[in-house]
Amino acid sequence: MRSIGLETGPVPLYxxxxxxxxxxxxxxxxxxxxxLPTEEQICAQYGVSRITVRRALDALIGQGLIIxxxxxxxxxxxxxxxxxxxxxxxxxxxxxxxxxxxxxxxxSLGEVEPSPEVAAALELAPGDRAVRLExxxxxxxxxxxxxxxxxxxxxxxxxxxxxxxxxxxxxxxxEQKLKxxxxxxxxxxxxxxxxxxxxxxxxxxxxxxxxxxxRVYYTAAGRPIEAAFLRHHPExxxxxxxxxxxxxx
Length: 249
What we know:
The chain is of the alpha+beta class. β4 (130-139) and β5 form a beta hairpin. The N and C termini lie far apart (43 Å). It has two domains: 13-76, Orthogonal Bundle (Arc Repressor Mutant, subunit A); 92-232, Chorismate lyase, CATH 3.40.1410. Strands 3-4-5-8-7-6 form a six-stranded antiparallel sheet. Strands 1-2 form a two-stranded antiparallel sheet. It has helices spanning 13-26, 39-46, 50-62, 92-99, 116-121, 153-156, 170-178, 196-202; strands spanning 66-69, 73-76, 103-112, 130-139, 142-152, 182-193, 209-219, 224-232. It contains eight helices and eight strands.
């Protein structure tokens, strides 16, 4: 196994590692469906910590390049023809400040058996439970977002209905409860159709085209502590992204 040195400098080690693994996968060193080296092997190969490796792998998962199977390892994702993926970065603090401008109303809070998607997002072990918060965010014109927020059961035990207040994102509540910082979030946006539940809470007919988002929040240690699934009203929400050159011109 070859040894690969990363450079100490302005580019974070995890980002250098992400780019190198991306190149190795894109170059065909690892085929679709093939297992990547273990976290321990990558640590030894690149001379980095496990936190660095996990942050790099999480970034590749967010790009849809690899998938993680709990207790088994990371694998190169099967390529899907006709799907174009674009990755953008921005400020998490600015995003949460904007999200907090919506009125937030709690519909339900309780323990649930996590779906495979939720269990994978939160990296739950078999048999682990999750706590689900069902919410609606609104503006003066009406409901804007129907949300389902999932957290690991030990974190969910700390939450009460009184903690959910207008102007305070759930992620900020979790930070306060755990006395830790959420430092990163991965967000996937796709076109979708409203199901009966989302349609009822958004005031639209079932099967209406909507914007669907999956967002996972991570601590500095790379631990996923919240998975949010959002369905947006098609006429009351939009994304505006400003793109600049690297020099900021």
